[in-house]
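Entry type: protein chain
Record version: 2
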Amino acid sequence: MFSGYYTIASGIMTREKEIDVIGNNLVNIQTPGFQSERMVISDFQQELLSRMDNGEATIMSANEASTIATVGGVYPILDQGIVKETGNQLNFAISGEGYFLVEGEDGAQYLTRNGNFERDEDGYLSLQGIGRVLGNNGPIRFTDTNFYTDTDGTIRNEDGDLIAKLQISKPNSYDELQKNSNGLYQIPNAQAITQAKDIMVYEKHLEMSNVDMNLEMTTMIEAQRAFQACSSALQVIDEMNRKAVSQLIGL
């Protein structure tokens, strides 16, 4: 009797989460370096089996179909956004698989593709509202306003002397990271990242978000229609159950 409720409720909750993910993509369409996300929908049985550590699925058959939907995961789209020249010497863009490493004001470390940096009041290269950008020897501090950056991320003064080198890192697994709504990934521990290779850094450039407005709007419409269909189905099955109960009481 209640199986219909479970199926429809799972559809409503799953589509609601999908709408939230798409909405966050749209909100961050102007955030430099933001990577859009996609939600994968799985059925309950598949999700259960994938989470059982011992591989023993004695409570249900692997050949049985499940009508209950669940969130299989939310994953980033790693396609690079368009890189635009800004003329701002404190703007940086990465070509390749890698992220800037930022030490937050809360003491945590973050990965980001957002290279829209500034110099704080103490002369440190920083990401506004987040924290200071890290180099291979800690936070990067400028004592000279005249500098240039090599494509490997090495920052030098006008005489060619080393100031710092941007620490470009990549995660060992995105499952280990905590994704923030603004596109930053919080790092749980130092073992979760490694040094990125085969990358190039461009100063006076910014990578735009890789959010595709047309795709997001199309996906949003599909998710909203599916949500509405589940809501309508819930009303129908509720009315059917009401009639069934009324007939039993009448008997």
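Comment: Residues 3-78+211-250 form one domain.
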